[in-house]
Amino acid sequence: MAKRGFVIHHNGPKANCLGQPHTRCVAFWNAVKNYHVRSRGWSDIAYSFGVCPHGVRFTGRGWHKNQFANGTDVVGEYDGKDSEWYSVLVFLGEDEKPTPEMVEGVKALIRDGRSLGLCGMRVLPHNAFKRKACPGPEFTAYARQWDNAPLDAPQDTPIYTDTEDDTTVVIGNNFNHWRLWFTPQGAFAAGMPAGVPLAKPSVVLNRTQWDALVKRLESNKALTRL
Ligand SMILES: [Zn+2]
Ligand SMILES: [Zn+2]
């Protein structure tokens, strides 16, 4: 059954990813995951997704498993169970402000859920469930703005990338995804010649860069297309 929409969370304490290389974001996500799995004993990180200050999307429980981050709903009218929502963790904490790339990354994620028919139009801040500051004033305002509203892509939207681990990134728009491997020599798709114009951590592309990359990828028959 389709979810109702997204609940946005932040980290509480500072995430310390702002202005840092993307490797720091990967380490942060893994630390949150380790905490949830090793210390709390949960089967996976509680969130469906994460989005870092570079606009890169991280997959936790993803589209097809139930997330576990909202907790008991004690604020206002009842908004439903964890299983009715996707959750997204923005890599921010107290007094940390979102980057434009992060805001666009979260919008792209929500748009994808909607356009894939996996969720409805709702967007709530975590503080609609719990008496807490999460996800901070900026994303609380964005959630209110995006709730039940269309999210058109801006002209020059960053295209999300989906980091699975340190070395593999899935990059794409809504319906086209390619798996890229990052190596010290650069980024490669399967069978792809050297010289792909991507280098970790420059994994957020604008529309023009994306179109150019797609052209190169499509001309390569050995490409792994997901
Ligand atoms: Zn939260
Ligand atoms: Zn990042």
Task: Describe the structure in brief.
The protein has 226 residues and is an alpha/beta fold. It is built from four helices and nine strands; from the N terminus they run E-H-E-E-E-H-E-H-E-E-E-E-H. It starts with a strand and ends in an 8-residue tail after the last helix.
Account of the 3D structure:
The protein starts with a strand and ends in an 8-residue tail after the last helix. A hairpin with a 2-residue loop joins strand 8 (177-183) and strand 9. The chain has two domains: 3-146, 3-Layer(aba) Sandwich (Lysozyme-like), CATH 3.40.80.10; 161-218, no CATH class. 25% of the residues lie in helices and 19% in strands. Strands 5-1-4-2-3-6-7-8-9 form a nine-stranded mixed beta sheet. It is built from four helices and nine strands; from the N terminus they run βαβββαβαββββα. Bound molecules: zinc ion (2 copies). The site of one zinc ion (ZN) has 6 residues, from helix 1. The site of one zinc ion has 3 residues, from loops.
